[in-house]
Automatic annotation (TrEMBL):
ABC transporter domain residues: 352-590
PROSITE patterns with a match to the protein in the record: ABC_TM1F (PS50929), ABC_TRANSPORTER_2 (PS50893)
A single GO molecular function term of this UniProt record: ABC-type oligopeptide transporter activity
Extent of the signal sequence: none
Name of protein: ATP-binding cassette subfamily C protein
Gene3D superfamilies: ABC transporter type 1, transmembrane domain, P-loop containing nucleotide triphosphate hydrolases
Classification via SMART domains: AAA
A Gene Ontology term for the protein's cellular component: plasma membrane
Nucleotide-binding listed as a keyword: yes
Lineage: Bacteria, Bacillati, Actinomycetota, Actinomycetes, Streptosporangiales
Major location category of this protein: membrane
Origin superkingdom: Bacteria
Membrane topology: Multi-pass membrane protein
PANTHER family noted in UniProt: ATP-BINDING CASSETTE SUB-FAMILY B MEMBER 10, MITOCHONDRIAL, ATP-DEPENDENT PERMEASE MDL1, MITOCHONDRIAL
Length: 600
C-alpha cells in the first residue's frame, strides 16, 4: 500500500496564537534550565556513559569466548565471570542513568512550567486576551506534559548516541573492514532520516497548533456555557468543537502515516547492514584476516546496536514532538513584559487621576473617549450611565487591569506621581485593588481564598474583614469555619457571598485605592443592600471609584460622573447634579420612583 506524503498546507492554521521559539532559543533555555541543577545533570551524564560502555563490552567478551573455546577451563571461567560483571554493571548503570535523567527532566519541566505560568500571569492583559487563555493553558499543561513524557526518551537517546559511538571503536578494535561493513547502514539511515525530518517537523508543529486550537474552542465553550445555553447556540458550538477536534485528529493521523513510511525504511537498512557484515566476515575469515570470534563479536555488536540505532531514529519522531512542544513553552517567555520601572510602596494618601483616556478594544471603535478625571485622596467617585456606556471599561483602565489605548492613569502620593503603566506588576495591587464583575472563588479553604492576595494575615484579621463585609453571620454557620473548603465542587456559595469574599479579600490586602465594579450587581435586590454596606466599609477612608448601577451607591459617593457612549457628559456631587436636572437627575428620578429635590 502506498501512503501519500502529507502536506502541511492541508492542515489548519491558527494565526492568533502566541509566538513559538526558534530552535536556537529553545536549546539555550533548555541548557540554562538544566544548569540550574548541575548535580543531577552530572549524575545523569556519568551513569549514561558507564551504561553505554557496558552495552559494548558484552559482545566483545562473547567474541573472545568463541576464539578461546579451547583455551582451558580457567580462561573460560575468567571470561564468563567478566561477562557476568559486565552484564550486571550495565543493568545497574542503565537503571541509575534512567533514574537520574528522569529526576533531572522532572526538575527542568517543573522549572519550565513555573517560569511559563509566571510569565503568562505577568504578560500584558491585552496580549493574553488576544492569544486566548486556552492557548496559554495548553502550553503550560499539554506542551509541558509532552516534554515531561519525552524526558526518559531523551535519556535513552543520549545513551544510544554514546553507545553507537563507543560501538564504532569496538568495531575498529576488531578489524577496520568489519567497521566498514557496519557503516553501510549510515548512508541509508541518513537519507531516510533527512527525508523524514524535512516533512515531520512542520507536521508536528501543525499538530500542536491544532491541539491548542481545540483547547481554546473547548475552554471558550465551557466559559461561555451560560451564553451558549441562553442563546440556544448548542448546535453551533458543538459543530465548532467537532471541527476543531476533527482538525486535531487529522493532524495526528497525517503525522502517523509519515512515521510508518519511515519505520519501513529503517527495517530495510538493518537487513542490508547485517547481510553486508556477515558477507564481509565470511570472506575475511576465509582469507584468515580475522577470526570467527571477531566476526561473531562484530555481528553481536551490530545486533546490539539495532536497539540504540532504532531508538535514535524512532525517537527523532518524539524528540521533534518534544521540540515542537518545548518551542511553544519557551515562546511564552519571548513575549515582552511591559517594562516595570516603579517598585515603591504607596504613601498613606493616594490621588487617582487620568488624562485623555480613550479605549478601543478592536483598535478602531472607541468605547471610552477623552476621559479626564481626578479622585482626590480619601474621596470616592461614582461612575453611572446606561448599559454599554463604557463604565466597566473605564473602571478596568483606572484599576490597572489593562492599559488604555490612549491617555494615562496617574497615582499621586506625598512622593510624587507614578503612572499606573510604570508600576511593577507585583506592586500594582498595593496601590490599587479591584473587584470586577468576574469574581472568582479559588478551590481551597475559605481561609486560603480570602487571604489569596494577603497570605500572612491572622485568623483574627480575617474574621474582622469578614465581619466588616457582613459575612461573619454565614461564615459562623459553616461546618469547618475558615477551614471549610470552597470553590468548584466544594461547599456552595451564593453570588452575594462570593462578592463578600471578594470584598474581604481586598480589605485584607488594604490597597490605597479601590475600584469596585458592580460589586452589588450579582446579589439580587435582597442582598444588594447588605453588599452596598460591605462595599461602603471598603470605600471608607480610601480613594475609591465605584461603578454604581444602584444609584444609592452613587449618592453616597463624594462625586459622580455620568457616562454616555464612552464620554463623560456630566459631573458633580449628587446634590449639584440633581439641581442641574440633566441626565443624572433623570436617572435618579427613574430609580427612586419620584423626582428628588436637591439636598433632599
Ligand atoms: N472585551 C471586550 N471586547 C470588545 N468589546 C467590548 C469588550 N468589553 C466591552 N466591550 C464593548 O465596549 C462597550 C462598553 O462596554 P462596558 O462593559 O465598558 O460598558 P458598561 O457601561 O460597563 O456596560 P454594563 O453596564 O452593561 O456593564 C460596549 O459596547 C461593549 O460591547
Amino acid at each position: 500500500m502506498t501512503v501519500p506524503a502529507p502536506r502541511v498546507a492541508d492542515l489548519p492554521e491558527n494565526k492568533d496564537i502566541l509566538p513559538v521559539a526558534a530552535p536556537g532559543q529553545t536549546w539555550r533555555v533548555l541548557l540554562r534550565t538544566a544548569l540550574r541543577h548541575r548535580g543531577e545533570a552530572a549524575a545523569a551524564l556519568g551513569f549514561t556513559v558507564l551504561s553505554s560502555a557496558g552495552v559494548v563490552t558484552s559482545p566483545l567478551l562473547l567474541g573472545l569466548l568463541v576464539d578461546r573455546a579451547g583455551a582451558g577451563t580457567a580462561a573460560l571461567v575468567r571470561l564468563l565471570a567478566a561477562l557476568g560483571v559486565a552484564v550486571l554493571c550495565t543493568a545497574v548503570f542503565t537503571a541509575l542513568a534512567q533514574r537520574a535523567a528522569e529526576r533531572l527532566g522532572a526538575r527542568i519541566a517543573a522549572d519550565l512550567r513555573e517560569d511559563t505560568l509566571t510569565q503568562a500571569l505577568r504578560m500584558d492583559a491585552g496580549v493574553l486576551e488576544k492569544a486566548g487563555a486556552g492557548d496559554v493553558a495548553s502550553r503550560v499543561t499539554d506542551d509541558v506534559e509532552q516534554f515531561v513524557e519525552s524526558v526518559p526518551l531523551g535519556a535513552a537517546v543520549f545513551t544510544a548516541l554514546v553507545t553507537v559511538g563507543v560501538a564504532f571503536f569496538g568495531f575498529l578494535s576488531l578489524d577496520w573492514r568489519l567497521a566498514l561493513a557496519f557503516t553501510v547502514v549510515f548512508p541509508i539511515h541518513a537519507l531516510s532520516l533527512r527525508w523524514y525530518l524535512a516533512k515531520s517537523g512542520p507536521l508536528y508543529a501543525a499538530e500542536r497548533r491544532s491541539s491548542a486550537e481545540r483547547s481554546r474552542v473547548l475552554l471558550g465553550s465551557l466559559h461561555g456555557a451560560g451564553t451558549v445555553r441562553a442563546y440556544r447556540m448548542h448546535p453551533l458550538q458543538t459543530a465548532r468543537v467537532a471541527q476543531a477536534s476533527a482538525h486535531s485528529v487529522d493532524a495526528a493521523l497525517t503525522s502517523l502515516r509519515l512515521f510508518f513510511r519511515f519505520s519501513m525504511g529503517m527495517n530495510g537498512a538493518e537487513a542490508v547492514g547485517l547481510s553486508t557484515l556477515l558477507t564481509a566476515g565470511f570472506f575475511l575469515v576465509r582469507a584468515d584476516a580475522v577470526s570467527v570470534g571477531d566476526v561473531t563479536a562484530a555481528a553481536l555488536l551490530f545486533h546490539r546496536l539495532f536497539s540504540p540505532l532504532g531508538t535514535l531514529l524512532l525517537s527523532f519522531d518524539d524528540v521533534q514532538r518534544a521540540g515542537a512542544a518545548l518551542a511553544r513553552v519557551v515562546g511564552v517567555a519571548m513575549i515582552p513584559i511591559p517594562a516595570a520601572k516603579v517598585a515603591r510602596a504607596p504613601g498613606a494618601a493616594v490621588t487617582l487621576s487620568c488624562a485623555g483616556v480613550g479605549h478601543a478594544y478592536d483598535g478602531r471603535t472607541s468605547v471610552v473617549r477623552a476621559v479626564d478625571l481626578r479622585v482626590p485622596a480619601g474621596t470616592s467617585l461614582a461612575i453611572v450611565g446606561a448599559s454599554g456606556a463604557g463604565k466597566t471599561t473605564l473602571a478596568g483602565i483606572l484599576g490597572g487591569a489593562f492599559p488604555a489605548t490612549e491617555g494615562t492613569v496617574t497615582l499621586t502620593d506625598a512622593e510624587g506621581d507614578v503612572a499606573v503603566s510604570d508600576l511593577d506588576p507585583d506592586r500594582l495591587r498595593d496601590w490599587i485593588g479591584i473587584v470586577s464583575q468576574e469574581t472568582h472563588v479559588f478551590t481551597g479553604t475559605l481561609r486560603e481564598d480570602v487571604t489569596f492576595a494577603a497570605p500572612d494575615r491572622s485568623d483574627e484579621a480575617i474574621l474582622q474583614a469578614l465581619t466588616a463585609v457582613g459575612a461573619a453571620g454565614w461564615v459562623g454557620t459553616l461546618p469547618d469555619g475558615l477551614d471549610t473548603r470552597v470553590g468548584e465542587g466544594e461547599h456552595p456559595l451564593t453570588a452575594a457571598q462570593v462578592q463578600q469574599l471578594a470584598l474581604a479579600r481586598l480589605l485584607l490586602r488594604d490597597p490605597a485605592v479601590v475600584v469596585l465594579d458592580e460589586a452589588t450587581a450579582e446579589a439580587g435586590s435582597s442582598g444588594a443592600r447588605d453588599l452596598e454596606r460591605a462595599a461602603a466599609a471598603l470605600v471608607r477612608g480610601r480613594t475609591a471609584v465605584v461603578v454604581a448601577h444602584r444609584l444609592t451607591q452613587a449618592r453616597d459617593c463624594d462625586a459622580i460622573v455620568v457616562m454616555d457612549r464612552g464620554a463623560i457628559v456630566e459631573s458633580g456631587t449628587h446634590a449639584d447634579l440633581l439641581t442641574r436636572e440633566g441626565r443624572y437627575a433623570a436617572l435618579w428620578s427613574a430609580w427612586s420612583g419620584a423626582p428628588e429635590v436637591a439636598g433632599g
